[in-house]
């Protein structure tokens, strides 16, 4: 049994109906719900069995970008890795989208077969190809199900295909109970978590926010906006990557990036390469010192309770452009919590002179 009672009887349904009514009247409805038919018209033919053997990189890449899929803003990070070997990608997609086979076996066969081909990308493709059958399993939907108390229990060692089948069963039942399609349900997860999950753009300073003397607001925003992606993309080349690796699983190697949980979204979740230890990395954007310290402690507590095994240590790391005494005093009294400042060096220099004309 995945749930102890049918979904329609659960309190979560009432809460979701309220959130759905609010979302219908918000600008977000036009931004990510109404483009559904446009997205399906464009990409469903690409994922059709008859076309997969001819799928090109130029056709596939746009699907990974929010400007084109209107729904998922993290898939583009895997763009180069997924398209590095197009013949292999076409073969993997043909397996994934073969409806003559059970979804569990297809999922298990393709998960992790290509670097970066994790649950977020796999289920987004499944959903667009077969929108009435498959919902999206990513960090956002997972965090929402946890917050609602609807996340299923998985057995230790249970294969990812079986896990997705359980998740998808819940998603399809929820959509039916709410009388919406799975595309709208996927948008609802983002709307529901707006208050507790930081959006990728949440580092943008408020209007009128002060900047340092050396860096105007636009530059500060640019640095904070891209720091998280820089850390993720260059993790193994940074000093932190010598001891820690971004948390991942065989079916979703990059799940530690913006890891959604019931109390928010962890910027980066990592595990020690040799020890039984976890690391919660939080970037200080425009929050107060008290807020960011409380936030990282909340995440550390959640990891300790829900992910760590008995005896595992959980550490926290706050990264900021600059710190203040309030943060330093707070951190000095908290075991396992550290603070580091990042530096960005940017230089302009003259190009080499043109060579003299030879006689």
Uncertain spans: 1-6, 197-222
Count every helix, treating DSSP H or I runs of 4 or more residues as helices. Answer: 17
SSE topology string: HHHHHHHHHHHHHHHEEEEHEHE
**Total count of strands:** 6
Q: What about the largest sheet?
A: 6 strands, mixed
Structural overview:
Helix content is 46%, strand content 10%. It has 17 helices and six strands. The protein has helices spanning 11-24, 27-33, 36-43, 49-52, 57-60, 66-69, 79-83, 86-96, 103-110, 119-129, 139-148, 160-178, 182-192, 217-234, 240-243, 289-306, 325-332, and strands at 244-246, 257-261, 264-272, 277-283, 313-320, 337-341. Helix 16 links the parallel strand 4 (277-283) and strand 5 (313-320). The N and C termini lie far apart (87 Å). The model is unreliable at 1-6 and 197-222 (pLDDT under 50).
Primary descriptors:
359 residues, 46% helix, 10% strand, 2 domains, globular, alpha/beta, disordered N terminus, 17 helices, Trna Endonuclease, Chain: A, domain 1
SSE map:
Layout: H1 11-24, H2 27-33, H3 36-43, H4 49-52, H5 57-60, H6 66-69, H7 79-83, H8 86-96, H9 103-110, H10 119-129, H11 139-148, H12 160-178, H13 182-192, H14 217-234, H15 240-243, E1 244-246, E2 257-261, E3 264-272, E4 277-283, H16 289-306, E5 313-320, H17 325-332, E6 337-341
Parallel strand pairs: 4-5, 5-6
Antiparallel strand pairs: 1-3, 2-3, 3-4
Helix pairs in contact: 2-13, 8-9, 9-12, 11-13
Produce a short descriptive summary.
The chain is an alpha/beta fold and 359 residues long.
């Amino acid at each position: 049994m995945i749930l102890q009672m049918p979904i329609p009887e659960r309190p979560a349904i009432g809460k979701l109906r309220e959130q759905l009514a609010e979302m219908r009247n918000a600008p977000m409805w036009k931004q990510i719900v109404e483009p559904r038919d446009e997205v399906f018209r464009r990409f469903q033919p690409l994922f059709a069995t008859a076309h997969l053997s001819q799928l090109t990189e130029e056709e596939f890449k746009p699907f990974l970008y929010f400007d084109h899929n209107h729904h998922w803003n993290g898939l583009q990070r895997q763009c180069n890795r997924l398209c590095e070997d197009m013949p292999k990608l076409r073969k993997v997609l043909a397996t994934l989208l073969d409806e003559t086979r059970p979804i569990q076996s297809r999922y298990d066969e393709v998960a992790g077969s290509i670097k970066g081909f994790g649950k977020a990308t796999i289920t987004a493709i499944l959903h667009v190809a077969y929108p009435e059958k498959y919902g999206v399993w990513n960090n956002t939907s997972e965090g929402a199900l946890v917050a609602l108390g609807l996340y299923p229990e998985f057995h230790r060692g249970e294969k990812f295909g079986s896990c997705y089948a359980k998740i998808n069963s819940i998603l399809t039942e929820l959509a039916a109970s709410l009388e919406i399609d799975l595309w709208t349900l996927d948008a609802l997860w983002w709307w529901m978590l707006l208050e507790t999950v930081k959006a990728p753009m949440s580092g943008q300073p408020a209007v009128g926010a002060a900047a340092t003397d050396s860096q105007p607001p636009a530059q500060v925003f640019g640095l904070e906006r891209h720091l998280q992606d820089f850390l993720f993309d260059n993790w193994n080349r940074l000093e932190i990557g010598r001891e820690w690796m971004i948390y991942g699983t065989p079916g979703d190697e990059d799940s530690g990036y913006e890891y959604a949980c019931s109390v928010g979204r962890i910027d980066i979740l990592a595990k020690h390469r040799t020890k039984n230890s976890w690391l919660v990395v939080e970037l200080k954007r425009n929050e107060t010192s008290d807020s960011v310290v409380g936030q990282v402690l909340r995440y550390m507590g959640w990891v300790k309770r829900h992910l760590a095994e008995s005896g595992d240590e959980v550490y926290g790391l706050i990264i900021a452009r600059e710190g203040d005494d309030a943060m330093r005093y707070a951190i000095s009294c908290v075991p396992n919590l550290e603070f580091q400042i990042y530096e960005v060096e940017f230089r302009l220099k003259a190009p080499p002179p043109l060579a003299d004309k030879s006689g």
